[in-house]
Amino acid sequence: MLLRTFFDAIELHRDDKFVSARFLRPFKVISTCPAHGGVTDHLDMVFNHQCCEPAGHQMTHLTAAHRQPAQYQAALLTDHDLEDKAAAGLGTAANMHNLCIAEETYRELAVVAVATGGVEGNAARAGDPASYYEYDALFHRIGDIGPEKQGTINVMLAVNTPLTDGALVRAVMTATEAKAALLQELSVPSRQSPSIATGTGTDQIAVMAPADGATPLGSAGHHSKLGELIARAVGRAIRDTLVWQNGLSPNRQCSCGQLLERFGAGTEALAARMAELLPDDELAALAGRNRHALDRDPPSVAATSALIHLYDQVCWQVIPQTCWPEIATQQAALLAATVSGRFDRLAGYRDALAARTGTFTPAALVSLAATALALGFADKWQTTTRRLESVVLSGEASG
């Protein structure tokens, strides 16, 4: 089915699990595609397709077939009656019905980004420990996280004017930076380290520009309008598709547990840890019944985010690690006061939390945050409880 036509030069079609950008005029393409990848000018189309389900889909011959990309692609094109087309293809476990399109224009310039994406199981930060070592056409396992984990961001990016080869490469850089910036904004956790992800281990991209016409543009970086349009379109397309594929949105990330997930404690684990720290079973049960409201209170999320950011700053050596105990104690006390509303008790919170800030590890950070949340929650209704008690006692005395 024809979805859209762009620049009177590209038709975007979707046939169930197969989405193709078909050229109506010659295009130059740079891509990460295993078959016909790199820079080429002889293609008829670029496609993206769902090759498996996101989790637990172990089809017979799947991995072996993907190791023969030319043959695999030929069979795929034949199945869609496109065997006479020269193509470069992207593959993913993401649902093609969750693809999103973003367009940006300025004067005569136009940019279109078509993205699919998922980051639930395969997100990683550039420089994280590797999973495989490739040698002599074989992949040797050396880590725990690999391509079988779900999560791939695929982008097909089209520009309406010719680009030099260098500008094509720069467009890939700009699009990649836009992706990394978006994942940082969403605080997407790496699954391989306690860091914010910059992508996934299997991301792919194809950038398309007309092969002839106007004088080729030579810049697609930050200072050029084309670079701005590319970044905006790619960021919007990826942001939108992650909502549909993973339910990942800015307001979902407004959660203490979501922000702490990359350190080993999601929402449920954080709530359980808090319950263990509360002084009695009744209070723990109350916190459990209200864990959603407590976890998603915006000021508390802000205070938790600030504590995490300070941890990151120490990791990045912006702040000396020797300063961590004082900084962490102060920020954790502020988190406790934010939960309780009792900023007059900051000094008491600092004293109570000081013993928990000496160790600089992800587990210690989670423990510190959980303790601060528990301290604040325990104090939250203390004033109200006393007021209610005094009213009742006063009424009984007067009666």
UniProtKB/TrEMBL annotation:
One Pfam family hit: CbiZ
InterPro entries in the record: AdoCbi_amidolase, CbiZ
Protein name per Swiss-Prot or TrEMBL: Adenosylcobinamide amidohydrolase
Natural source organism: Magnetospirillum sulfuroxidans
